[in-house]
Design brief:
Blueprint (H helix, E strand, L loop, with lengths): L4 H16 L4 E5 L8 H14 L4 E5 L5 H7 L5 H6 L19 E4 L2 E4 L15 H16 L4 E5 L6 H9 L2 E6 L3 H20 L6 E6 L7 H10 L6 E2 L7 H8 L12 H15 L4
Parallel strand pairs: 1-5, 1-6, 2-4, 2-5, 6-7, 7-8
Antiparallel strand pairs: 3-4
The structure holds adenosine-5'-triphosphate and magnesium ion.
């Protein structure tokens, strides 16, 4: 008998728990292209991991603050963060991190929020900020005994993106399937390899996750097939364009927690993509 989507979700969470519990691993969601589903993926993975019983740290280095807003249910203002001495994402990029508190959204789910100050991080090209962010995040992960960290990134090149790329144990790259995106991807992967080598770091596990895909076109299917030629990355099953996903994200929830008619099919599709993207097998 075919499993219900609830059973499939439980299996997915059990795998997340067995692979990542106690790992202190950092999953980064990045693509320099905008609107490809980075934040949507970060939110779904974070929700599943917390429901799996993992202690999860979400870090939002995108000043748009969509990950912050969706996970927290509201923006966290600079004043609130500063007054309560919580670490903000901008704080990570300065040498002296005189704070040790991450913002607890609820038990096992903490946030390092993007505030407006995040816009200033990339104004100076000072690379020492990247090293500071690298060291600060590593320290917070150990001090807070987090099982897993998920970093959502902006669709731009700079210190915020570079720090995340250096921190990644697993790099998930949602992408749209078209000729321009695939060309851009090759350049990004070359830069990833160069930066990791320069930092003396081994390559992270990399997954390419075709997102918002419309499989009605032969060209799309051909372009999807051509992705498998990318040597340094695994290609996940595609995520199709689905109104249920954007509906859920606008409600600040994972798709499996929103009662829409296509929930079962869409949840199964997401689980299959994320299972591959997170190297759960
Ligand atoms: N598979 C999908 N089907 C339909 N809509 C989707 C899908 N994935 C994401 N969306 C919607 O597309 C929009 C962009 O997604 P998202 O914010 O996750 O992209 P992003 O890569 O984080 O964008 P940015 O680069 O601006 O940070 C959102 O409105 C989201 O709800
Ligand atoms: Mg985003």
């Amino acid at each position: 008998m075919k499993k219900t989507f609830r059973a499939a979700l439980q299996d997915f969470q059990a795998s997340l728990s067995s692979v990542y519990r106690g790992s202190g691993n950092i999953v980064v969601v990045n693509n320099e292209k905008g609107g490809v589903g980075k934040t949507t993926s970060a939110v779904h993975v974070a929700c599943a991991a917390v429901d799996a019983g993992l202690k999860v740290l979400c870090i939002d280095v995108d000043p748009q603050g969509n990950f912050t807003r969706t996970m927290n249910g509201a923006d966290l203002s600079q004043a609130y963060v500063t007054d309560n001495n919580f670490i903000s994402a901008a704080d990570l990029f300065y040498d002296k991190l005189n704070k040790d508190k991450t913002y607890p959204i609820r038990e096992n789910l903490h946030l390092v929020a993007a505030t407006d100050e995040m816009y200033t991080v990339d104004e100076s090209g000072d690379k020492s900020r990247v090293i500071a962010a690298y060291q600060n995040v590593k320290r917070i992960m150990t001090d807070g005994a987090f099982d897993l960290c998920i970093i959502d990134t902006p669709p731009t090149v700079g210190n915020r993106q570079l720090a995340a790329l250096l921190l990644a144990d697993v790099l998930v790259m949602p992408l749209e399937v078209d000729a321009f995106s695939i060309k851009g991807l090759e350049k990004q992967l070359t830069r990833l390899t160069t930066s990791r080598r320069a930092g003396g770091l081994p390559m992270p596990k990399v997954s390419l996750m075709p997102s918002r895909v419309d499989l009605r076109y032969k060209l799309t299917k051909d372009q999807l097939a051509s992705l498998s030629e990318v040597k340094v990355a695994r290609v996940t099953p595609p995520i199709k364009h689905s109104g249920a996903i954007s509906h859920a994200i606008s409600a600040g929830k994972a798709t499996w927690d929103v009662p829409v008619s296509s929930r079962k099919q869409v949840t199964e599709m997401l689980i299959s993509a994320y299972t591959s993207a997170l190297f759960l097998y």
